[in-house]
Write a structure and sequence with these properties.
With about 725 residues, this protein is of the alpha+beta class. It has 23 helices and 30 strands. The strands form ten sheets. It has a five-stranded antiparallel sheet. Helix 5 packs antiparallel against helix 6. The protein starts with a strand and ends in a 9-residue tail after the last strand. The N terminus is likely disordered.
């Protein structure tokens, strides 16, 4: 039998009177999961930091420090002429006397520092440069000088080879000058018309044009000049052309080794010419091993065609293999150096930005590797130290002088802002290069040090005790991640925050800062993060310190916004909101967000109504909901089939008493709206109304009438 289900409008249940709120009170117990949420405890108070400006004032460099600085730049010994200078003038003298060829970066840094001190006579930069900076830059310059020397050797060889190919006698001035000068000298000295014209064209170009001429163009043009000469000889006598071609082939083969072949060589038989090459010192050099092997292989043959093939093509192919092998060896040596830098940075646990930069260089081109070694590795040493203790994540080590603290900063009325005084340059340990020191990015020459176990920011006085106090040795984080910093001066004591202060502490309980052992390991473990962190607003602090929420909502995808006192920020899977005096930041996502926003976010009709909870999953496992405070005042519910709608006041309370979305009414299908004499909310299977005069609540249920078709009469 076929059954048909028909829904007919909105009505009370079959013939019964309207069911009042009192009649249904207590019929369905509200879902336990929707009970009022206790407000979280307030976050820790931001510390009242006190800055001691005098703590970062550097005393003038000592004579001993100046003597060491002069020796570092290789300009002789420090005479009284040096030692009597003020630090500012000493730096200028460094700039004036240092070799621009061997120490270009040090010279440039000395000039930069001098200009700073001229503009700010009290700036500590000059003293810091004498005490530490000059050594750092001089070491960089020595590494780069060796690299430049190798590049100069390769450039000289390329010029010498090009000159020999073009049959141009080359002196030291021609070979050791610039590429442009070499091109000019080729133009002056060449007898080949095409080479001469090509040199003139290249000379007027840029550095790339000069180098291309030396490494490629000159070979093509000289070959064309030779072919023209051979063709001219052929027009006179074929045999003469053959002899000339053989002679030129030998000249070209010798030129591959940067040798200008004398005429007797060019008249040798092919096998004897190869034997002559084997006697040269050039072919004895390791960088020509492929040519050496190919020459020996050719001579092991008794076939004149093999000898000729070596002279015509074999020597060129072998030269390409030599060049490729040498280039690969240089590039591999550079890559190995980057690998070593990366491995050391990983082991330190203190230089994640250096690790990332090294990894990027290794994944890139040889030019990327070279740039990393010359510049990149020095540009990523600044970073910040963030606490890892639950509730204190998003708090950073900070000091402008004197005592160091952890702090999230104090948000302003606008959006994101820099915390300041919380960026540290991680340098080799002042007392132990196997460990590290933290130099303030804002106060050059000042370091985090322990003094009477309190961690402070002080200017270096150059003493051995200061160097010891300002050196920290990284260990594996006590919590199993991050890094723990052991004091070099106080072995067994670690940089630890407690009550927002920072101490060199242990877990002995000896001092009050050695207590609170339940959080000691977390307090003494740090995360190394990017420099110049922004102030940690309530949104950021909630995201950092709530692991479950962070997993659920994902990473930020846009900056924080402040609008009418409400802070909010969009994340991959939702949004966080916060307003002063409204408790903890709360999370919303999906279609509930625009409904929440349309209601005024935290204020409804001018009345405070912060969220009581994060958006949560309904008890039926399908929908989502969120409650406002005061509890039982307003909620927003969403389901895939109904969308997001809000329910308010007495109507909301009645629906809650029935079991929310698991009640016989289901999810709301409308926001509350006006009706004559009151208000109404519609649901999937009914509605609830409120009488503004009496306060009465009425529940309407959808009537379902099932009709059974009447059987057709039998056929007579």
């Amino acid at each position: 039998m076929r059954r048909t289900v028909i829904t007919r409008g909105w009505s009370v249940r079959v013939g019964a009177a309207v069911v009042t709120a009192a009649a249904l009170a207590g019929l369905v117990t509200p879902s336990a999961g929707y009970a009022a949420v206790t407000a979280p405890p307030p976050p820790p108070s931001v510390p009242q930091e006190s800055t001691d400006a005098a703590a970062t004032a550097l005393a003038e460099a000592s004579d001993v420090e100046k003597v060491k600085a002069v020796r570092a730049i290789e300009v002789g010994e420090a005479t009284d002429e040096w030692l009597m200078l003020t630090d500012k003038n000493f730096v200028f003298k460094v700039y004036d006397k240092i070799s621009a060829d061997k120490f270009p970066q040090t010279k440039a840094e000395a000039y930069r520092v001098y200009r700073i001190v001229v503009d700010r006579p009290d700036a500590p930069d000059a003293t810091a440069f004498i005490r530490t900076g000059v050594f750092d830059f001089a070491d960089r310059d020595r590494i780069e000088y060796a690299r430049r020397q190798e590049e100069a050797r390769l450039a000289r060889e390329a010029r010498q080879k090009a000159a020999a190919w073009a049959e141009i006698p080359a002196d030291a001035a021609m070979l050791d000058g610039t590429d442009q000068n070499f091109v000019y000298q080729v133009w002056r000295r060449s007898t080949g018309p095409k080479v001469k014209a090509g040199a003139a064209d290249a000379w007027g170009g840029d550095a790339t044009a000069w180098k291309t001429f030396i490494t490629t163009t000159i070979y093509t043009l000289h070959t064309q000049d030779q072919r023209d000469a051979i063709e001219k000889a052929r027009q006179e006598d074929a045999e003469k052309a053959r002899i000339l071609a053989a002679q030129l082939a030998k000249k070209n083969a010798a030129a591959i080794l940067a040798i200008t072949a004398p005429e007797p060589w060019t008249n040798l038989t092919d096998d004897n010419f190869i034997r002559q090459l084997l006697t040269t010192q050039e072919l004895a050099q390791p960088r020509h091993v492929e040519i050496l092997n190919a020459a020996n292989a050719a001579l092991r043959s008794s076939d004149p065609a093999v000898w000729k093939a070596f002279i015509d093509t074999g020597i060129y192919d072998a030269d390409k293999r030599d060049a490729a092998r040498e280039k690969a060896a240089r590039e591999e040596a550079d890559r190995q150096l980057v690998r070593e830098i990366k491995a050391k940075a990983e082991q330190s646990r203190l230089r994640p930005r250096l690790v990332a930069a090294a990894a990027a260089a290794l994944a890139g081109t040889p030019a990327d590797v070279t740039k990393f070694l010359s510049e990149g590795q020095y540009a990523v040493l600044a970073q910040s130290l963030m606490a890892t203790t639950p509730g204190a994540k998003g708090w950073y080590v900070r000091s402008g002088g004197g005592d160091a603290w952890i702090t999230p900063g104090t948000p302003g009325a606008a959006g994101e802002a820099k915390l300041g005084e919380s960026t540290w340059k991680t340098v080799a340990g002042l007392a132990d290069p196997a460990c590290y020191s933290f130099e303030s990015a804002g106060h050059v020459g000042s370091y985090l040090r322990q003094q009477d176990m309190r961690v402070k920011l002080h200017a270096s006085d150059g003493s051995d005790q200061f160097k010891l106090d300002a050196t920290w040795c990284p260990k594996a984080g006590l919590t199993g991640s991050g890094v723990t910093l052991e004091s070099k001066a106080l072995p067994g004591r670690f940089m630890r925050h407690i009550n927002a202060q920072i101490w060199a502490a242990n877990d002995s309980g000896q001092n009050w800062w050695d207590g609170n052992l339940d959080v000691y390991k977390a307090d003494a473990t740090w995360n190394i993060v990017d420099p110049d962190p922004i102030i940690s607003t309530p949104l950021i602090l909630r995201w950092y310190n709530d692991d479950a929420l962070r997993t659920k909502i994902g990473n930020p995808k846009s900056p924080e916004v402040v609008e009418n006192g409400v802070r909010y920020r969009d994340y991959a899977n939702g949004r966080l909101y916060w307003k002063a005096d409204r408790g903890e930041a709360r999370m919303l996502s999906g279609a509930i967000i625009p409904v929440f926003d349309s209601l005024g976010r935290f204020d409804i009709n001018g009345s405070p109504a912060p969220l009581a909870i994060d958006q949560s999953t309904c008890a039926d496992g399908t929908g989502q909901f969120v409650h406002y405070i005061p509890e039982r005042m307003m909620s927003i519910f969403w389901s895939p089939s109904t969308g997001a709608h809000w329910v308010l006041g007495a109507i909301r309370d009645k629906w809650a008493s029935m079991g929310w979305e698991r009640s016989e009414l289901g999810y709301p299908t409308s926001d509350e709206y006006d009706i004559p004499g009151g208000r109404r909310s519609d649901f999937q299977k009914g509605s609830i109304t409120w009488d503004s005069a009496t306060g009465a609540i009425q529940v309407y249920r959808r009537v379902v009438i099932t009709l059974t078709p009447t059987p057709a009469p039998p056929t007579p």
